[in-house]
Design a protein that fits this description.
Layout: H1 2-16, H2 22-28, H3 35-65, H4 69-89, H5 103-112, H6 115-128, H7 130-149, H8 151-195
Helix pairs in contact: 1-6, 1-7, 2-8, 3-5, 3-6, 3-7, 4-6, 4-8, 6-7
Length: 200
C-alpha cells in the first residue's frame, strides 16, 4: 500500500507540474496581494473536483464506453509522452492561447488536471485502488496549492529560468512515466490476446 501511495503521489505531482502554471498564475493575481491564497485555493479546488470525479467514476466511464484498460494505458502513455516532450523542448502542440479564458479555471483544468492527469488517475485507481490514489491525490494537490501560493518566492529566488528548468526536469520524468505506461499496456494487451487465442 505504501509503495502504491508513493508511486501514485509522484506520478500525479509530476503530471500536474504546478511550476508550469506559475507564469499564468502570477499574471492573473498580479497586484492582488492577499487574494493570492484565495485564487490558488480556487484553482486547486477546480483541479480536485475534476480529479476526484475520475477517481470515483473513471472505471464506470471505461465500462460505459467499452474501452479496454490496457488500451487506455497505451493511449494515456501517448498523451503523457506528448505533454512531457512539450515541457522538455519548450514548445506547445496542445496548449493554445489562454489570454481570453477564465484564468483561474484554466489553471485548475487543463493546466493542473488535464488529459494526462485524468488518464493517469484512472490507470492508478485500477492498479492501487481508490483509497490509495485518493490519499496520494490529496497530498499532490496540497503541494500544488503551496507552489502556487508561494509562487512569488519561487520566482524571486530561482527566477523564470529556474522555473523553466524545473518544468523541463519534471518533463523528463513525465516522458519516462509515459514510456513505462505504453510498454506495460502493450505487453499486457498482447498477453491478453495470446490467452484469448488471437495470437498463437
Amino acid at each position: 500500500m505504501f509503495e502504491g501511495f508513493v508511486s501514485s503521489f509522484i506520478s500525479l505531482f509530476v503530471v500536474m507540474d504546478p511550476f508550469a502554471s506559475i507564469p499564468v498564475f502570477l499574471s492573473v493575481t498580479k497586484g492582488k496581494g492577499r487574494n493570492k491564497l484565495h485564487a490558488a485555493s480556487s484553482a486547486v479546488g477546480i483541479a480536485a473536483a475534476v480529479l476526484f470525479a475520475f477517481i470515483f467514476f473513471g472505471q464506470e466511464m471505461l465500462s460505459f464506453f467499452r474501452v479496454n484498460f490496457y488500451s487506455l494505458q497505451v493511449a494515456g502513455g501517448i498523451v503523457l509522452l506528448v505533454l512531457g516532450v512539450e515541457l522538455v523542448l519548450g514548445f506547445s502542440l496542445t496548449r493554445g492561447s489562454y489570454k481570453y479564458t477564465p484564468a483561474i479555471s484554466l489553471i485548475g483544468t487543463p493546466l493542473l488536471t488535464g488529459p494526462g492527469a485524468i488518464t493517469l488517475t484512472t490507470i492508478l485507481v485500477k492498479e492501487y485502488g481508490r483509497l490509495v490514489v485518493s490519499m496520494a491525490a490529496i497530498l499532490a494537490l496540497m503541494l500544488c496549492l503551496l507552489v502556487l501560493w508561494f509562487s512569488n518566492y519561487f520566482t524571486r529566488f530561482i527566477g523564470n529560468y529556474g522555473i523553466g528548468t524545473a518544468s523541463r526536469v519534471i518533463g523528463i520524468f513525465l516522458v519516462a512515466i509515459a514510456v513505462e505506461l505504453i510498454l506495460r499496456g502493450l505487453v499486457s494487451r498482447l498477453a491478453e490476446l495470446r490467452v484469448e487465442g488471437i495470437f498463437s
